[in-house]
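User: I'll paste a sequence; please echo it back and then give the predicted structure.

Assistant: Echoing your sequence first, then the prediction.
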Amino acid sequence: MARQRVGGRLSCCKGDPAESGGEAFLPGGIAENIRRTVRASGRAIARKAFSAGRSAIARSASFIGSGQDSSTGGTSAAEKGEICMTLKGSYVALITPFHQDGSVNFEKLEELIEMQIRGGTDGIVVLGTTGESSTMSHEEDEDVVRCALSAISGRCALIAGSGSNSTETALMKSKAYDKLGVDALLLITPYYNKANQTGMVRHFTMVADQVNVPVIVYNVPGRTGCALSVKSVEALSRHPGIIGIKEASGDMSFMMNIAHLASKDFAIVSGNDDITLPIMAAGGTGVISVLANVCPEVTYRMTHAFLEGDVLTARELQLRYLDLIHALFMEVNPIPVKEAMNLMGLNVGPLRMPLCEMEPEHRQALSAVLHRYGLVKE
């Protein structure tokens, strides 16, 4: 496994799986999927790297060549290159603001991105569950990515959710966002279809094989009805283009097992705000956060305190904000967080059907929590 300093941090670099623990051997053809990936077509990519003070994401990429040695004109080990990326700290799972007529409010989206950058957020994640991408058209999705790229202007990372339960659709979206210039892609497990483990691994590897940016796997069985196994995550972690997982099963035993078995350069980030610190204590490197929509500075401080060895401060912040985190999930996400942002005067607009406003008693309880944390003054 190769490592290098990028933007002042130690960056994990994805190279030949044989150099990072060998192939994963799983039933049903999964090992062959990984072998085919490693023999990919030898595309070489050199994309912009930036640090933005905190080194959000930096990468240079080159997919593994044909396996020939340099004496026959092939790619030598020294020439193969790697995919490099830091995935550490606080990444906001950003809501999508709407006008009252339901159209995307791009001006407000720009304002929210500025708020996140001022708060220290390491990266912006658009078009995820919190961003209501399931109710948006492909055209709207691409417009959101364009707007976010323009607003960020290289100051932090942009990760776009490009998943689908159709592999062809996920591939189409991933290629489109790659072409637009995102820094990484977030791919959810193929929901509703409930593919077996071999099918899910093929789903992710097919996309990762054909894009020039890193892929982050998203495991959230409570929403999708399917879950990656530890062995599947282990296999995916050997793919040179799959650099991490957003782990949102809430199962700490599963988390411990993937931390133990996955490639050592494979990043694990929490997808549950209430257990960010436990996941980081088990080897995770940060969070893709709903809480950061309302408290970007807090989420940044908590994750970076832990990364810098200040466990006591990180623990104090995790526990201090636990009641607020619970309040943001008293109904299905993103209903409470959008209600909270509106109560805070951020005016992010309504939800899209079938999501709707909170039940009155929940709204009252949420408002009380926001007042207690000083997020609503009146």
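Residues 89-306 form a domain with the TIM Barrel fold (CATH 3.20.20.70). The CA atoms of residues 217 and 245 lie 5 Å apart.
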